[in-house]
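Input record, target 12 of the design panel.
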């Protein structure tokens, strides 16, 4: 059995990719810090899961984690914590950094972007 650094459940890894654990961790921290209410988080995630179901997305972990990410982005964008254009810029910066990073190397944002 291959070793995985991701948490395990009875059915195998609880997460398929590290980003899935990270986005849930970020959401949890934001709720704990009072940036997002637990009610808003639950309702936002529920809306994203409903949208995914209605669009015919498969009922699997990938769909769930994509809904988690979409809910977090939507809630943060609507909360005033970050403007939508700032969030879009950060997503694009990560995409560009990912594309420019050789396989197997850690993805890093330029210092100017990390500090903004």
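The sequence produced for target 12 reads:
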């Amino acid at each position: 059995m291959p070793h995985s650094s991701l948490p395990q459940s009875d059915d195998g890894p609880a997460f398929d990719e590290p980003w899935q654990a990270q986005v849930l961790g970020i959401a949890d921290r934001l709720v704990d810090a009072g940036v997002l209410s637990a009610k808003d988080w639950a309702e936002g995630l529920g809306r994203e899961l409903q949208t995914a179901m209605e669009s015919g997305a498969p009922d699997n972990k990938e769909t769930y984690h994509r809904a988690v990410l979409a809910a977090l982005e939507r809630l943060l964008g609507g909360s005033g914590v970050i403007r939508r254009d700032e969030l879009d810029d950060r997503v694009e910066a990560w995409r560009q950094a990912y594309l420019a990073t050789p396989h197997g190397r850690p993805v890093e944002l330029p210092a100017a972007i990390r500090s903004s």
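The first strand starts at residue 8 and ends at 9.
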